[in-house]
Structure formats: C-alpha cells, structure tokens
Amino acid sequence: MVDAEQKSIKQSDISRITVKDIAVEAGVSVSTVSRALANDPVIAKETRERVMRKAKEMGYRPNFFARGLIRQRSGVVALFVNNITNPFYPEVLVKLSRRLQKMKLHTMIFTSDDGVEDSVPALQEINPDVAILLAATMKADYLQEFNDSNTPVILFNRYVAGASASAICCDNTAGGRLVAERLAQSGYRHLAFIEGLATASTNVDRLAGYLEGIAASGLPDPVIYSGGDFSYENGYAGMRQLYARDQRIDAVFCANDIIAVGASDCIRRELGLRVPEDIAIVGFDDIALASWPSHDLTTVRQPMDDMIDCVITEILRFQQNRSATPKQYFMPGELIIRGSANLADGRVNE
Asked: Which positions are tagged coiled coil (predicted)?
C-alpha cells in the first residue's frame, strides 16, 4: 500500500517537472534548457546532451501548448470533419495523421453533424499552426474568423468562392464530364443523377461537369434527384423516386460511392431489376468497398495520396509564413471501370 502511494507521489512529481527545475539541476539558464530541448544548434553539443540527459533522469514531459506560446507556434494541426460516416474521409484522416506525426506535429480532430462553425471558438483557443477542413461546409464569413486570428486554412476536397484559404480538390467538374462522355460513348441514352448535399462544392461541380458532358454528347437533360445528402439512405430513396418519374432511365451517376451503393441496392431489392443490364450505376471517390464483389462499382477515383502531398506542401509553406498567399490545386480523377456499368464494350440501349 505504501509502495503504491509512493509511486503515485513520484508520478505526480514527474508531471510537474518544468524547464526551470531542469535548469537548476543542470546548472544552466532556463533559456538554455529551452533551446537544448528544441535541439537548437546554437547550444554546444556537450551542454545539449547534459540537459537532455538530466531531463530524461527527471522524467520531464514537454507541454507542447506551453512550448507553443514561447515559440509562437503550437505544433498543432486542427482537422475539422462533419461527414466521418463516408469511408473516404476516415481513410484521409488516417493517412494525413500519419504524415503529420512524422513531421512531429500534433493532430486535433473536431467533428460536427451540421458544420464546423461551432468549433471556431475552440480553435481560436488552441491557436493551431494550420486548420484543415475535410468534408466540411463553411461560409466565407466564418472562414474570415480564422483569417482574423491569423490561422491559415486549407480546404480539402472543398472550396469556397472568394475565401482566403488554400483549396486542394479533385477536379470534380472534369470527373463529372468524363462520366457523362463515357456513358454516352457506350450507348446509354437516358441518364440520371442523384445529388448529395446541394450546397457542397463537390456536389455542385460533379453535377455541372455531368451536365456539360451530356450536352456536348447531344443527349437530353438528365433526370435529377435532389434535396438529400451523401448517405446510403439518400441513394436508395433517390433511385426509387427517379424510377417512378422515368422508367426509361438506363444509367445513373451518383454524387459519391455511398449514394451509388444505396441506389444499386434499391434497383436489385425493390425494383427487381439488374445492375448493369437494366440500369448502370457510377459513383465517385473509389472507397474500399467499391471494389468488393458485392458492389463491383464503376467510379471516379480521387487522387487521395497526391492531394495529401499538397496538404503537406501547404502546411510547410504556412509554417514558414503564416501570411503566405493561399493556393488552389485541382487534380484529375481517374475513371475506374468495374461491373456496375458496361463502359468498355460500347453497349447500345436505345
């Protein structure tokens, strides 16, 4: 019992060790300890090693928030996400977090069902080096609050017109256009589209490109189901509504893969039809389940790794200069042909 209490006391003492304590034990100034712990080359190697050795002996654990106040950099990257149920974004979070860890940056994740505006006060308290918005919708005036606090913002797979923020996106307009052109070339004539969240730039651009491709191919306007979100349930309900409106539909482009899976299930289970023989389905994102045999989904693959590379590039730029001019990156997607649409054989369905 006594040993346990002593151990608890020792652990408590360790948690309160400060750079001042280390300075006293090492016989140097507090500023020397701070610089040595930061591996500052100005400090002599022998002194730096003595400080590091003493810090280890004393069980020192750095408080990165306190260090951030001194260095005017928190070492924190704030990630905002409000659509974590879409498998695309958890994969991005994992890959991006691992890259940030290698850069010795700390990650803080904020989630919300409706948006990220409620998280703005918390963000201002921690003063991150950079704020990254994934799958988030945010108005330009809220982005201005970040700018007012001198926090650089990176929008991932989103952009806000007129906002002072870097944007890193798949070229969603080109992706939508590519889908329409390939469907038309393969003989599909009665096209449809199931929207995601109407205000999301990804949805807006994918639909815009799809409409451009359809018009360029000389096909009639598609039947569009709108008013939903990026969910499986929206895909299922949307497919039901589309077919009730026009039973000639032979191909449906969906705003993302989750919607596409919902639409496919509706076709098979409720409408009693076949994919792709009766109705072809195309998604967007190329999440892991798109390649599963049960879905075998034709989709547009986002260049996730290249997009994350750009995020890292922007973080490094903003670390050098928090006032650096924001940049926009639009990267081409890749059409991945699988079994949910006959795009390779030029199928004709008049």
From this structure: none
Phi-psi region of 85 (alpha: psi -120 to 50; beta: other; left: phi over 0): alpha
Which strands sit side by side in the sheet containing 280-285, from one edge to the other? 223-225, 191-194, 251-254, 280-285, 298-301, 334-336
Which residues share a beta bridge with 331?
170
Sign of dihedral through CA atoms 270, 208, 342, 305? negative
Q: For residue 113, what pLDDT is reported?
A: 62
Write down all domains in the chain, each with its CATH number in brackets: 19-71 (1.10.260.40), 76-170+304-333 (3.40.50.2300), 172-302 (3.40.50.2300)
Sign of CA dihedral 254, 187, 184, 222: negative
| Ramachandran bin of 189, using left for φ above 0, alpha for ψ from -120 to 50, beta for the remaining angles | alpha
296 three-class SS = coil
Amino acid identity of residue 66, one-letter, is A
Residue 321: HSE in the Cβ half-sphere, 13 Å Cα cutoff? 5
56: CB partners within 8 A, 6+ apart: none
Q: Average pLDDT over the chain, rounded to whole?
A: 86
pTM: 0.79
Is 187 in contact with 349 (CB distance < 8 Å)? yes
Give tens-digit pLDDT for 100-117: 999 989 898 887 665 556
Cα→Cα distances 223→48, 193, 254, Å: 69, 6, 12
Q: In whole angstroms, what is the distance from residue 35 CA to residue 257 CA?
A: 50
Alpha carbons 70 and 235: distance in angstroms, whole number: 51
